[in-house]
Amino acid sequence: MSMSPRPSFALIGAALLMSVSAGAGASQSWSFDLLDPTGSSSGTQLTYTQGGATLTARGYSSTGYPDNDNSNANRIETAYLNAGPGYPGVGITNNDAYGTWPGDTNENGGIWDIRELAIDNNERFDSILLDFSALNGSQGVKLDTLNVLGYTDSDFFVLAYTGGGTPSLVDQQYGSLAGWTLVGNYSNLANNSSASVDLNTSIYSSFWLIGAGGFEAGTGVTSGDKNGNGSWKAFKDSNYDYIKLANVTVTKKDGGNSVPEPGSLALAGLAFAGMLGLRRRKEA
Fold first, then answer.
1. Does any domain span residue 2?
2. Are 148 and 177 in contact (CB under 8 A)?
3. What is the residue-wise DSSP string for 49-93?
4. Alpha-carbon gap, residue 197 to 193, rounded angstroms
5. Number of domains, the chain
6. What is the pTM of this model?
7. Per-residue model confidence as pLDDT tens digits over 174-199
8. Does residue 5 lie in a domain region?
9. 3-state DSSP call for residue 100?
10. What is the DSSP letter of 153?
11. Are 99 and 88 in contact (CB under 8 A)?
């Protein structure tokens, strides 16, 4: 008489634990509404929370020495972020606003001047750092989409930090940033309108830098527009760039190294215990 093979309870238990671990290592996604910060809606740093995840946004601009117009020689300093009611997206007001010498004369239009409360490259080069280190530590996240509002010209660039440790931008120059990888230059994707931009990247990073215009390693911020010969066009009124960010979506990939959730382990343990009890009853 043939006998059906008896399952190995050790193998079944191992399979259960493997399935739990695989589930714990699955990708997770978050969508952050940048118009709804936690706490203050202005300052050099804003905090956002979504589903237990935290994003910190910081503003920067090239307002440091020698503080010349449209110059990558300028040092980077912190800048003020603007969000909350009345703002269609997060923008930046830099330290040279309001006519202070030498002044960014186009940075003091107030909330009604929608362009100059944007992230722009008119005279000074603005950028916003998205810090996801509190969400997934050094493993980072993949920046999937940006909801961008553009005004006049609306080129922008995205950099991902792939160096070691925590990046420092203050007192640096855009043209000599170390440890940053250019994800892409995005041209006029939201000109005088809004658009959801898919970045199409496979990079995972805890730190992402978004700025107005184009970017080239060794050069820094550009106008974002090129001549027929491939060189960057000079900065002028017709090709200054103005963008605001309304929303970002990110994906966290644990890579299977995460500790399984207690509830999942408990369910696996109960299932395995049930199988052992069934085996004992049959043997009795």
1. no
2. no
3. EETTEEEEEEEEES-STT--TT-TTSPPEEEEEE-STT-SSBEEE
4. 12
5. 1
6. 0.80
7. 999 999 999 999 987 766 788 999 99
8. no
9. coil
10. B
11. no
